[in-house]
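Can't attach files on this board, so I'm pasting raw text. These are the components:
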Amino acid sequence: MAVPLLQVRDLRIEIPTRRGVLTAIDGVSFDIEDGEILGVVGESGAGKSLTGAAIIGLLEPPLRIAGGEIILEGQRIDNLPYARMRAIRGKKIGAIFQDPLTSLNPLYTIGRQLIETIQTHTDLSSSKARDRSIELLREVGIPAPERRIDAYPHQFSGGMRQRVVIALALCANPRLIIADEPTTALDVSIQAQILALLKRLCRDHGTAVMLVTHDMGVIAETAHRVAVMYAGRIAELGPVREVVKHPKHPYTEGLMGAIPAMGHDVDRLNQIEGSMPRLTAIPPGCAFNPRCPKAFDRCFVERPDPMASDPSQVACWLYDKQPVEAAHG
Amino acid sequence: MAEATALVEVSNLAKYFDVSKPWLNRVLERDKRQILKAVDGVSFSIPKGRTFSLVGESGCGKSTVARTVVGLYQPTKGKTVFDGVDTADLKSRRAQRPFRRRVQMIFQDPYASLNPRWRVRDIIAEPIRAHGLLSGQDVDDRVDDLLTHVKLTPQDGAKFPHEFSGGQRQRISIARALASSSEFLVCDEPTSALDVSVQAQILNLMKDLQRELDLTYLFISHNLAVVYHVSDWVGVMYLGRLVEWAEKRTLFRFPRHPYTRMLLDTIPDLDMTGRERVPVAGEVPNPINPPSGCPFHPRCAFANERCQSELPKALPTAEGTMVACHAVEEDRLPLEDRKTVPVLAGGNDGAGV
Amino acid sequence: MADDTHLDHRPSSEPPIYAPKASAAMIEAQEPAGRWRRAWDSDIAYSFRRSPVAVVSAVITLIFFIGALFAPWLAPQNPFDPASLNLMNGFTPPMTDNAFTGEQFLLGTDNQGRDILSTILYGSRISLLVGFASVIFALILGTVLGLLAGYLGGWLDSVIMRIADVQLSFPAILIALLIFGVARAMLPRDMQNDVAIYVLIVAIGLSNWVQYARTVRGTTMVEKNKEYVHAARLIGLHPFKIMVRHVLPNVTGPVLVIATIGLALAIITEATLSFLGVGVPPTQPSLGTMIQVGQDYLFSGEWWITFFPGLALVLLALSVNLLGDWLRDALNPKLR
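---
Top answer:
Structure tokens for the assembled complex are below.
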């Protein structure tokens, strides 16, 4: 296989605080292929949004990339100066955020914002850029785009605004779109529309999508592969069907069991006791060990790295194929 | 909704908000008064010890119902009868006391529902002290007891809310709601701000407490799976009205109203059956100018002229469902048995947790 | 749908989208034991230690406080006591022997032979007293009115805020002048000097309550829609109890910031009024009085009479102001 579109290698993000340096993301590695939708799922504080922000070069100080590499189309982008990163952002990587209102300038018509973005990344003339904007709006399913292009963001409903944001992200035909909770602020019926749109764009243009969300349901019906994050690390990474139907990591298993299920009359949900540790209190060994029903000696001492367990990768000692050395315990 | 006698009976409840511009602007701009009918004619009753859920999209008025039932809003029309007493008759603060003691609320945002300047112990003790239920050392003992009940420790009482995670704060909220030995809890999206694994903890806790203390819940949520899990009865709201309500299994297996069916279709498929979610066209209309007739008709595939002009009344069906839909009434909408769809995520094919 | 929209947002305690920040909850550490230890470790104390401007301003403010508080012991002479003054010492330049008495004064003397340093020490006493008292007066008045207006709303809110609007359309100094003038006209002549300082406090206080009221009203209107206030209402507490016990503790933060900046403003207002000759009686000179006295001699070469009190006023007002600025930033989570 050719070189993946995006490679993240051993990414590490730190927050220097007055009480010492905290590690928010630690040793995260994954690839995204052309045209693939990779779901990144996790609970709040797992570091999924930070990973997205790091890729797009929008980490806010004092957060910083402290180690690892981010490689886009064979070119390292995590150490680029701000100006060069800005050129890549938008042109090669597009972004969709949770709240469409924050991504749109309320003072300009959406047409002006689209045209500006298109002209930043291409040499199109104003009228050509306008034509392209209308075409984009039509593509994301905005009715009567010739008319709506001169409307202001507040004249659109939440779902329509998110479509405009997607159009903005598509302006320069990026190879990769980072979508951070794109449907979280929307109602269920609108959510389905937006996800269908993302899937269609991905299919038609071969754009890869990194879909960051807390909602397993969204992942299950949209993504090809999924990375489950816990306390700044990837717990499990694999084909979505495999992870959803046959979760391997005890955390993923617990997570799937905790989702209330329709039609299944269970009296109690499976619950994972406790909550995700704060960054200041990540336990030694596997970060999940205090909540894990299957933890054994080794989990409290040694931190597991993702290990292959076909067809997935699981960061759990239960799946270690190497014989355990006698020294442990 | 027969069964036992109802603890809570809401009849024809309506809440309108005046969202007009200020008087001067109205005069100058020749605008009319604008009335937002957040809730318009909602009726249901909840037997003691049971859970009734209201489900719907944002803006359907479900939270307004919750707040009107507990008395945070004055109803525009209709009434709430709690344990045989019409709450509108409770005029003075003194007359309201028993109602205030017995009815409490659990809120959505665990970060806003606890006073950040108060210690947890004082937060939980406040209802006890305000109603003069206990005094002195007894208050502390009761608080310890409540904290243990919601699976926190008595030591946690000395801390401030910011020292707790979202799930723990929601436990504190529940402890406060139970402090005055309340019987009826109105829960307004109590888990929608929580992570899935924490949501499971809170839902389990609420079920345990209901069994143990014979609590009655009015549960508000946008999440159908959560609603299915916690409820006995479910009501579906659209633009300020209940469009369909029934015992939960009946509702989820034989949904009659097109809107209910649409909502069920949008549930993400965790079973990976490969079923494509059918995106529904259109969005919820502006509730200030709701469509004429049946409010759902612009999005409904079964709408005819009657739907555009005449507001449907809620009528019982053979399955025991109450539905407000002309198409169902005229038998234009065949019964659908959804015993296969939608399902589960629960049993992970043998990979027991 | 004001009530419904905000209730339907889904889990998002995650740092907001593409501006992820290290949220407090993510990095919060265990609190070490001990009240002092905790105070030293708190974010406010830390941000204070890290800000040189705040530390320098605090030191200068503290020097003024100590100087004012212990003026009778620190000052070389009591400038308010005519017996200790020697007219022959008038117009002595700083650090120079007086031509007649041979005495030396660090900062020189004024026309009546008062030691400038002593006058500054005693004068800042009056400035700080008037400043503090009027700020406290304005703060209490403004907070009470703002709380009532914000929480109860309705006609009471309209009345209070319209009065505030009217008052805001006049400069504060004009209001103070007016109140001061009215009080003077109403009081018998022999009482005027004794009560002048209280009249001054009330006048400055009354001219400044509006911003406290507005701020408190705004925060109250935000807080009263928070769920913890709903919870208190559902318990059945009396509205006044809710206001005092729940809302008040949560609206004080921004008020303290205004109060600090208001202190500098009140000191300047007092100096202005005294400069205009309507403030404290001339026998008890404040910084403003001294600047006024000195300006007659500014162009005849006796610059120090105006310069040093002026410098003191600028230093005091500036450092209190900078302290207020720092406090505002330190309490504002958005700028942290």
